[in-house]
Amino acid sequence: IIPIIFCLGVSGQFVAPPILYYNKALRIAPSQEDIRHNLAIAETRTKDKITAVPEFFLHRWMRVVRNSVNCNAWGALSLLFFALILTFALLFLLASRLGVRKAGFYGALCSLLLFVATTAFAISSRNDILTENEAVVMSSAISVKSSPDRSATDLFVLHEGTKLRIVAEFDEWVEVVIADGKKGWTERKNIETI
């Protein structure tokens, strides 16, 4: 909360730095509710109130599960399930009783499914940390243009602290998409990647 009070001041200026750094912190520790709370407070100070396109429920559920723990925890869980696969496979191969062999087979199968799921979550979480396709508007106001040219038509205006996604780059220009699906071009100097 201290960075918000310090950066926002009394008049609500300088809203972009806390939003940028709270989003960076969420990439490292996605399960921290304190960071999400502070980010929500900082986002209330932005001028642009953009309604996001609704997310498919299955995608949202997978993201919530993935963000429940960090990348290292998913990696450790995948190693644990891999060890269980080997244990159950040995049980299946070496046991002489049919009931024990069945338990080894089904245990290995369940462990394999859990290993695949946790490995996918670990890879997805790692890619989310390393991918730099999200940014925050750092200038007080920017015009988003129809093409990467200063004389191009202005499509809409974004204000400081608005979060956006980078989809393409051309010289010092980037094509951006905001949460409601609108897209256009802006100069890279106006934004900072998360």
Description:
This protein is of the alpha+beta class and 194 residues long. It has helices spanning 2-8, 16-28, 33-43, 57-66, 71-94, 98-130; strands at residues 134-137, 141-145, 154-159, 163-170, 173-177, 183-187, 191-193. A hairpin with an 8-residue loop joins strand 2 and strand 3. Helix 2 runs antiparallel to helix 3 (33-43) and helix 5 runs antiparallel to helix 6 (98-130). The protein starts with a helix and ends with a strand.
How is the secondary structure organized here?
Layout: H1 2-8, H2 16-28, H3 33-43, H4 57-66, H5 71-94, H6 98-130, E1 134-137, E2 141-145, E3 154-159, E4 163-170, E5 173-177, E6 183-187, E7 191-193
Antiparallel strand pairs: 1-4, 1-7, 2-3, 4-5, 5-6
Helix pairs in contact: 2-3, 5-6
Short description:
The chain has helices at residues 2-8, 16-28, 33-43, 57-66, 71-94, 98-130; strands spanning 134-137, 141-145, 154-159, 163-170, 173-177, 183-187, 191-193.
Low-confidence stretches are 1-12
Helix percentage = 40-55%
Q: Tell how many strands the DSSP assignment holds.
A: 7
> Strand content of the residues, in percent?
15-25%
Radius of gyration: 23 Å
The major β-sheet equals:
5 strands, antiparallel
Q: What structural class do the secondary elements suggest?
A: alpha+beta
Please give the order of strands in the largest beta sheet: 6-5-4-1-7
Mean pLDDT: 89
How many helices? The count is: 6
